[in-house]
Amino acid sequence: MEQTADFSQPDRKEAQKRARKYNRSKRILGIVNFLIDLVFLLFFLLGGSSLALQGFFEGFLKSPWLVILGYVTVLILLLEIISFPVNFLSGFLLEHHYKLSNQTLKDWLKDKFKGFSVTFLLGLVLAELLYAILRNYPSLWWLLAAFLFSVLFILMAKLFPVLLIPIFFKLTPLKDEDLEKRLFDLSSKTRTRIRDVCKIDLSKKSKTANAALAGLGNTQKIILSDTLLENFSPDEIEVIVAHELGHHVKRHIPRLIAIQSLITLIAFFIADAVFRSTLSFFRFDAVHDIGNLPLLLLVFLFLSLISFPFANAYSRHLERHADEYALSATGAKEAFIASMEKLGLLNLAEIEPHPFIEFVFYSHPSIKKRIAFAKNFSLKGGTIRHD
């Protein structure tokens, strides 16, 4: 397979300097974006704008469904507008500055519009359902809402490759029959049912490379970026896919859904207590007033901030197990190491981030740690273990 990227040794030092600057800029902009949302929601709520917006729509709309439609539309538009400058810096200018993006401004704006449309539709549906539960079950709404969201997490995981990925990428069948057979054989050995193997045209947007096993049950499919196919050998692709299969074989997805559901339950429980203790302060008439939506979002923001480093620590734990599984399933230590090095260079990843940065921000172990793990890994009888 033709190698189109330059992985020569002299460029590695310079690439790591660029990677550190790039990732530092990404983190700073991410924190700024978080603070912008936080400050906006606080001022929108404390300044009375949220209550005024609710009153505006209630003044001429009798249906609570329409009031929620109007309120959510305005709130999502405002959040999008205030966060757009930082998103433009992070998602377009920074990516082009570090030569990671192939998108024109027009194409980037198209993707932003698509993303906004998906966010708006999902946000509106969730808000309508949530406040319908609040109106009808004011005492137990938090429990019913958490159950509803848990069902939606499972549904979204199942429909992700069918509904969402095609909005942003063109999926085509993999033309490499040998590689396709190899990946189907691998999935068969790991007892994972795969619907098909697809390629996405990531190169139209980015120079980075990626692979995924998306979906649940009969929607599961292996997705490979064209940049991965162009720059990685079949052995390297196989071990990367084996890592993704490892997440499913070791039931990481159900675990993550269960944890996310628990966090959502806690967030709704806290929100219920906050709603009831602050009704008079914010001059709301009932817990089902749509004007308290920013308060609910703030609860989720604070909880996500607190749980963020611990969620990443658990994610790194799962990723280590997936790496172990990939090495057990393929026995391809050299291919694993080579794939890590290439992914680091192509995706401009920090090979060895500061320990504190890794603890707080990294959902995967650093590339240096993953390579060291592979070098020290020994096959246990050459068998594939199913947990």
Domain unit count: 1
Task: Supply Rg.
Answer: 23 Å
Distance between the termini: 34 Å
Strand content: under 5%
- Give unreliable regions as ranges: 1-10, 381-387
Structural class, from helix and strand content? mainly alpha
The total of helices stands at 13
Share of residues in helices: over 70%
This entry's quaternary arrangement is single chain
Number of E-state strands = 4
Mean pLDDT: 89
Trace the largest sheet across and list its strands.
1-2-4-3
Task: Give the overall shape.
Answer: globular
Structure description:
Residues 1-10 and 381-387 have low confidence and may be disordered. A hairpin with a 6-residue loop joins strand 3 and strand 4 (221-225). Helix 1 (10-46) runs antiparallel to helix 10 and helix 8 (234-249) packs across helix 10 (293-330). The protein has one domain (10-375). It has 13 helices and four strands. Helices cover 71% and strands 4% of the residues. A four-stranded mixed sheet has the order 1-2-4-3, with helices on both faces.
In short:
The protein is mainly alpha-helical.
Main features:
single chain; 387 residues; mainly alpha; 4-stranded mixed beta sheet; 13 helices; 4 strands
